[in-house]
């Protein structure tokens, strides 16, 4: 279907708005974790167990969203999931007011299901806009999500400073953003119709689509890199604010503002990420990113005072910015297998969301939460060591320079062998067609024929 330029431009603005809205929604929940911990009377490990229900909700939704998008279309899924998400975030706020851990777990599950349905649908619409525009604009949509997160964190810090309870915070933001979301949907969705022929029976989501790709060693290594990158980014999102509150005895607003520094650093680099990767290449960019993460997290964990924390958050944010985009870009190098490979790689990100918050949360019960976040350092080291897997071509564990040297040595050896064969043939025939021999071959013949 061909669309007019004005319609495509309107859809681009609408999808950008959807990404921004979901970024604000995510920041709204994250910004109040310190208060939620107090209201629910839980430790960091117990909060991690409650957040596990959210991860399980995302996993369950991931198994059916592909079928639902094909069966009902993105327009219907975005419309109805708007109301489901609103109900879930209202319940989340009510659970904090009731001090009910059980209801908080249920609400977290529902919030993640609603978010997953929206995420798949709006990414499908973003891809449709990119195809219609004929140029790469997907990074801009993800940057809009990060901008929404930064603004949502700033709003959360201000509301927390005013002493407003999460239940009213969540209700106000939920109602306002749902109304805005419903208003932009007609512009955002260019088609959005069901495609029943693509609605294959059965479940499995990316795990089913990616089954054959797990046998490819390069895909698995890229998946490990994405697992590490998701761990690095997710650790900051879920625990950095609370770590500041507990480690430096600061109010929730200060914790939110320092995580806001992380997000702004990440957004800044993501917006110009294509130029950075184009100049340095994927491998070097990934290794520089890993180095920045190690420096930033170490500084955050061992900062002697609050004054050094913003520097650590900036380095951490810059290092976390490009890991996931590079991984998904590398998985898409072969167009014919891109969908299955992206599905395979995304499953590693899902597993990271299930496992790593639990690891960090329970470590936070044993040591200071700032120190528990050091688990991201091994993740960065693994990403550094496996960086060559994101190359479009070439061996997995050898540098391009070493490969080039080996190829030059092989070429020289082949040339030398050819010269020896040519000289031997000339001697056997008893003639010396000098013009037909390379310079080295002529010299060899002269030396051998001399008395």
CATH topology of the largest domain: Growth Hormone, Chain: A
* CATH class designation of the largest domain: Mainly Alpha
At CATH level 2, the architecture of the largest domain is Up-down Bundle
Supply the number of helical segments: 20
Spell the H/E element sequence: HHHHHHHHHHHHHHHHHHHH
Low-confidence spans: pLDDT under 50, at least 5 residues? none
Give the CA-based shape: globular
CATH superfamily of the largest domain: MFS general substrate transporter like domains
| Residue share in β-strands | under 5%
Structural class comes to mainly alpha
Rg:
28 Å
Number of structural domains: 3
Number of strands: 0
Distance between the termini: 83 Å
Percent range for helical residues?
Answer: over 70%
Average residue-wise pLDDT: 83
> What's the main sheet like?
none
Structure in words:
The protein is mostly helical. It folds into three domains: 1-189, MFS general substrate transporter like domains (Growth Hormone, Chain: A, Up-down Bundle); 205-397, MFS general substrate transporter like domains (Growth Hormone, Chain: A, Up-down Bundle), CATH 1.20.1250.20; 401-449, no CATH class. Helix content is 79%, strand content 0%. The chain has 20 helices and no strands. Helix 3 runs antiparallel to helix 16, helix 10 (217-248) runs antiparallel to helix 18 (376-385) and helix 19 (400-429) crosses helix 20 (439-449). The chain is globular, with a radius of gyration of 28 Å. It starts with a helix and ends with a helix.
